[in-house]
Amino acid sequence: MQCEEIEYEIIGETMQMVEIELDPGETVIAEAGSMNYMEEGITYESKMGDGSNADEGFMGKLWQAGKRVITGESLFMTHFHNTASQKRRVAFASPFPGKIIALNMTEIGGKIICQKDSFLCAALGTSLGITFNKKLGAGFFGGEGFILQKIEGDGMAFMHASGTLIERKLNGETLRLDTGCLVAFSDGVDYNIEMVKGLKSMFFGGEGMFLATLSGHGTVWIQSLPFSRLADRILAHAPSRGGSSQGEGSVLGGVGRILDGD
User: Fold this and answer.
1) Is residue 75 part of a domain?
2) To the nearest whole percent, how much of the chain has pLDDT over 70?
3) CA pair distance 32, 50, nearest whole angstrom
């Protein structure tokens, strides 16, 4: 199925949302719960599957939805349809601070592999699936396990990344990065995991025991602040059930709590 052509505008800097303009009869698909607002004339419906195969039967839709459950996503996707006689707009917001990536799938070869929770929305006709990493090292230690999300189509698709977004072009080079900082990579890029060399670096370097290795020809998208890293920092400094908390330094943290009246 050929993807519908949609117009869009990305609004904001760090807490971004994407506003999509739909012609009469056009549809955009999105992750459940990502809608921010919609104009009169836009209707929505939760469906199993992405709608990329109009002739797909119930069992096919169930299979597609089941693959999404494997990645930890919702069983259903939300389809937003313009029933008005003129253009209407619907907006979707990222669930955490960061950047929204607008991808013209035709320009990147029609296929992209990404983190299982990075997809935001796309033009109807975009196919969402999963791909299994065949390498044991990448599967066990790559942060995303054996399962990555696969997006295919010839229209616009939108992903979100945490923190600042970096786009790197590879022309036969090799790029190594923290496994949690990888957002997506295009077709032609080989993904693997390598162990950090040296026992001291492995255990005391603070960068983890494994790095993601990407090589080949294509594009890699990197996020500066993985949400898991941010969540770990928040939990580390959150008050415990007993009411105590760990400050930014054991002495200054205690003084700060006294001055704050804690």
Assistant:
1) yes
2) 66
3) 12
CA separation for the pair 103, 175 (Å, rounded): 21
Query: 223 in the Ramachandran plot: left (φ > 0), alpha (ψ -120 to 50) or beta?
Result: beta
CB count within 10 Å of CB 40 equals 7
CA angle 152, 158, 159 (to 5 degrees): 95
* 207 within a domain of the structure (yes/no): yes
Q: Which of 117-126, 196-205, 228-237 has the highest mean pLDDT?
A: 117-126
The tokens describing 67, both together, are 């693959």
Q: What is the span of the domain harbouring residue 178? A: 7-229
In a domain, 37, yes or no: yes
**What pTM did the predictor assign?**
0.75
CATH of the domain at 88: 3.60.160.10
Question: How many domains does the chain divide into?
Answer: 1
Which DSSP string corresponds to 66-130? HHHHHTT--SEEEEEEE-SSS-EEEEEE-SSSEEEEEEEGGGGTTEEEE-TT-EEEEETT-EEEE
Q: Choose between 231 and 208: higher pLDDT.
A: 231
Cα 260 to Cα 84: distance, rounded to the nearest angstrom: 55
